[in-house]
Each structure stands twice: as C-alpha cells, then as structure tokens.
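[job 4417] fold queue: 2 targets
>>> target A
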Amino acid sequence: MHLTLINLFKKTVPGHIFRGKRRLVKPVSQRAMDTLTREYERQEQVMLLLRNPYLTLEQSAGHAKELQKREKLVAKWTQEQTLSKMKPHVTIEERLNQLKIKEAWD
C-alpha cells in the first residue's frame, strides 16, 4: 500500500522521459568527460596514422604483384572450376526417359 502511494504521487516527467519539452536531462559526469576525452585522443592517433602513410607512393606501387593476388583470384573463377561445382544440366526428356517402355504405338 505504501509503495503504491509513493509511486502514484511521485513527481516525474510526463510522457517519454528522454524526449520532449519536459525531458529528463542526465547531468554530465566526470567519467563521461574522461571517456569522451580518451575517444578523441584515440581518433586523433588514428588520423595521424592515416595522414602519414607507412609506405611511400613509389614503394606501394606494385607491391601486390609479388603476392600474385590477382592471378589467384582469376584462377578461382575459371570456367572449369565453376562448372565442376554445378550440377549437370538435365532435360525433361532425360527425366521422363524412364517412362518409355517401347517405341511402337499399339
């Protein structure tokens, strides 16, 4: 009974508590500020790595040729390999061939 009365007369925000004119706004804590600061520092480190590439343009030109990635990719999609994975074509005549007993009409 007492819990019901407390819940009934509790002063809360009308409607959805995080939307609208009378919404409940969470106060900014020090932990949230520290988390945001760490996130910005991490993004800055990533941007620094992206701005300064590991290889120069001369070094990066043609470095994948030795790995032969393109040739392996093309070899993977050859006609023989794709046909070997597929089932052979079956016609209706081959399906209904078992119904043939004799050719002559009686």
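>>> target B
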Amino acid sequence: MIEKLFLTLATLALLHAAYSTYEHLSLLKALGKPEGSLPLNIVYESILALILGLLGASLNAPPLKDITWASEMKKRTIDGMDSRLGFAHYKSRGKFLFASPHDGKI
C-alpha cells in the first residue's frame, strides 16, 4: 500500500515541479531575461520526486525469480533437454576453407 502512495506522491511532485518550471520560465520571458537558472526549490522537488518514484517502483516490483540451474530443471524434463541438437561440426569444410589455392583442391 505504501508503494502506491510513494508512486502517487512522486507523480504529483513531478507534475508540480514541471508546472513550476513552466511558470518560472514564463516569468523570465516576460521580464526579458531568457537566461537564468531554475530556483533550487524546483530542483530539490524534482530530485525528491525521482527518489520517491524509485522507492515506490522498487517496493511495488514483484519478488525476483530464482534463476539457478536447479530451478530451471524443475520446469523441464530430461527428455526435453536431451532432444536438442548437438554442436555442428565443420571439420569437413575446413579442408576447403583453409586450403591454399596452390594445392589444387579447389
């Protein structure tokens, strides 16, 4: 439940920071000062929204799955694993691929 609250607060804080940035840039444009940095409170609000969003997303994520060989073999049978194709052999092609043109084999 708290993870959804964190995500909601992060979304609201980020939207508020975006609106505050728009207002600040509109004010700078109206005053004829297009240069200027953002106020620190907008930057801090954006960073807080990022931290809340990361915390909420990581708490909201499902538990990690086990990726060991033993857990993979629980899902499969030995017949399914042994029926796969083996490695391809290129021994017969090696004579032609790596032969010099002077051997007369080509």
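[job 4417] complete. Note on B: Helices lie at 2-31, 40-60, 69-75, 78-82, 91-97.
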